[in-house]
Amino acid sequence: MTLLEGCVGVEDLVLLEPLEQESLLKNLQLRYENKEIYTYIGNVLISVNPYQQLPIYGPEFIAQYRDYTFYELKPHIYALANVAYQSLRDRDRDQCILITGESGAGKTEASKLVMSYVAAVCGKGEQVNSVKEQLLQSNPVLEAFGNAKTIRNNNSSRFGKYMDIEFDFKGAPLGGVITNYLLEKSRVVKQLDGERNFHIFYQLLAGADAHLLEALKLERDTSRYAYLNQKVSRVDGMDDASNFKSVQNAMTVIGFSEVENQQVLEVTALVLKLGNVELGDESQANRTSASSICDERGIQEIGRMMGLNSEELEKALCSRTVKTAKEEVVTTLNVIQAQYARDALAKNIYSRLFNWIVNRINESIKVGIGESKKVMGVLDIYGFEILEDNSFEQFVINYCNEKLQQVFIEMTLKEEQEEYKREGIPWTKVDYFDNGIICNLIEHNQRGILAMLDEECLRPGVVSDSTFLAKLNQVFSKHGYYESKVTQNAQRQYDHSMGLSCFRICHYAGKVTYNVNSFIDKNNDLLFRDLSQAMWKAQHPLLRSLFPEGDPKQASLKRPPTAGAQFKSSVAILMKNLYSKNPNYIRCIKPNEHQQRGQFSSELVATQTRYLGLLENVRVRRAGYAYRQRYGPFLERYRMLGRNTWPRWNGGDREGVEKVLGELSLSSEELAFGETKIFIRSPRTLFYLEEQRRLRLQQLATLIQKIYRGWRCRTNYQLMRKSQILISSWFRGNMQKKRYEKIRASTVLIQAFVRGWKARKNYRKYFRSGAALTLADFIYKSLTQKFLLGLRNNLPSTNILDRTWPAAPYRCFNTANQELRQLFYHWKCKKFRDRLSPKQVEILKEKLCASELFKDKKASYPQSVPIPFCGDYIGLQGNPKVQKLKGGEEGPVLMADTVKKVNRGNGKTSSRILLLTKGHVILIDTKKSQAKTVIGLDSVTEVSVTSFKDGLFSLHLSEISSVGSKGDFLLVSEHVIELLTKMYQAVLDATQRQLLITVTEKFSVRFKESSVAIKVIQGPEGGRNDKLRCKKKGSRCLEVTVQ
Asked: 899: helix, coil or strand?
């Protein structure tokens, strides 16, 4: 661990030389200018606000700091958060992180960084992640409703927040509780120049869509609302519209329902609209001053949003009812009083809404009753404020900071020095300023400023801020930390900056002058009972729940506690809570007044370091011990480092600690043995102990693993030995069984050979030499019988397409097996033929004839095989005219089809009906149904057909016939395979000769006295018999393209 090597300046001010105010400031400035904003004083973290985003945050840096101890890496807020979390998780010590500093020093950002780190390093799981997300998402909601832009800070917390994050025994978050302190509700109705109202008002107007604004009766222009500072409506670097969406999403994650979200926004809008209620003077008959609402429309709109009659609301704003035990008196309010009532109502509505939001968040993140838990508290409270005009709010804020400074003094400076005395450790006392006298000046029960303020508010008679100041001057006239104009005059001091209505307190952070104007009113924090009752009558559910005292059944004449008394009580509870936990300090410093990056004001920082007591803290740290622990827990943690104390120690705790540290040979200067605790001076020594403990734990883990592995190996060996013995016994038994079987088989074989030898010997002696042939014949017949019987049982099916046949078992039966196969196939064919009808026989004969004529010759033949021959393709039965043309003596028509006749002269086609009978081919005109040509089958000598898929064919006729003298015919048919097959059979039946069918692409046809050469070619798209293109090539050539 090195704290000085390779770092900018001194990372821990305990090591600073020389230890002076000037050197401390120079060290902080040097580190700040090099963007090193964090510095240690022992375990106290100093954070200087950089006013810019630095690349030192995120998952990568979280992973680094969670694996190292406090001083092993650069100073960082993650290191302090890690120490607090590990101490809570591993040592069961409740923690609190106190973040202090002036307004604008970066306290809010520091608290968010602490929470983000803890959320990142604690446990995982669906429920755990949900709790972490709810805890983290509470920040943007509370910032929107509780933060505002001030002169010193663009995102200043205008309330105090203390969050207790509760964890289970594993360190996983269970939930939390948020406590808020003294919201600055006066900001709702009035802001200083250069400041804004709370963020939520600007976010609502900028981020809400038009539909939502219309529902809330709002307008987007901020200048339309009296409660919003018109000069400062936007903040550099802050996007109100996107922040509004983030707030809405955060409320959903926390568990706000849509109805609750809407109601919160409605109440927020009501506060804005109340500021626009104008009040005017009105005189009554008795000449007393009164007031009235100038804008009736506006008050009616507010009444509708509240669910309240506008007349009742106007009456509550402009009059006041005073009840006594005997009577009830109604008095009218003048304009100033009515305006005060209006502003008081707006402040109370907003303040109670904020409290309701905090309570609603607590409901979502609370931990169940009975669960054991550890607690880490994070305090983010308003910083010390010194303004030009300091009022009641600054007074109580600075009082709270005084108490926090007192906690720091007592738990770091005073407590540490007193602890050394109690433990009997030699010690040189370090002087420091104890601000207990200032806290006592403010909070003393009888003679404190708050007590006298409450007394002045409660006493009868004329009460004013002046009487309160006069009382302070009387009581504290000789107090060393109180000043006023009266006390200065008494001491003959002249200070022109002190006003007549002011008093001054010398706080630890400097002198602050307070103006007592409105102290009485702000402390009373009164809301007229008429307004509370009117709000309780409202029909708006959320608004009504904010004013339970308005219920007449719960009405009480008892005066409510003052604001000062409530705040004092809350601070006392907070202090008690902080004292019960182990503190971790983050001291935030503001480097300049202008929120500018890179600027370092030495005077401003010197003032802050002086009142924060940083120099005294360094002196105490340097003179004292960095770590102390009771002997019992210390021995329990480190006793494994000593041979005498491990694994068992029966002596006293202190003696055991001395034994452990004595064996480690540590320097006596590093150690001090107190009455009940061991003290260690340097963090290096503690790190050394932790490192030795880590190594020893590894050794013990290795020892445990070794013993466990040995036991496991022995157990495994014993199991293996038992298994081996069992397997060996079974193996030997099995080997003996196999050996016995082998011996037995050998014995049987020898016996068989002996018996065979004896049989052969007896055979030669008693039987004929021809017995071998008899035996061979018997064996052959037996095999033959077995073959035939097996064939009978395994005959294939009678389907003629099934050509399977069992193989012969022996080669001697191959010839017989083939003959039997042929016989069986012929028998199946005969059986199939016997089952056919005459018509089926004729169809098969035609198909067989077509196969013989066109198989492997004509491309369209395969397509025609599965299609049965129909014969009639023109509906001959329904066409009596065509039936008459065939003649009665011709018999039935063998084929009737529509063909195209090709003109041999010009290549054009004309449609014809072709009738094929037993003796003729008749061509009929399709239009006139008249026979154009009758061709006898004996005149047909040859048919030419192409090999393509087309239907073109030529009928070559005999020249001596009457029809043939005109020439041959060139026809096209879609059923050319069927037509030519039937024509072939008809010619064979009629003339007892076979018709010659030639398959060719080139042939000639006779045309009158000459011949025409026909050339058939195939087009690019393949042969289709429905489209032909004929082209004349000269006078004696015709080119036909089939496509």
From this structure: strand
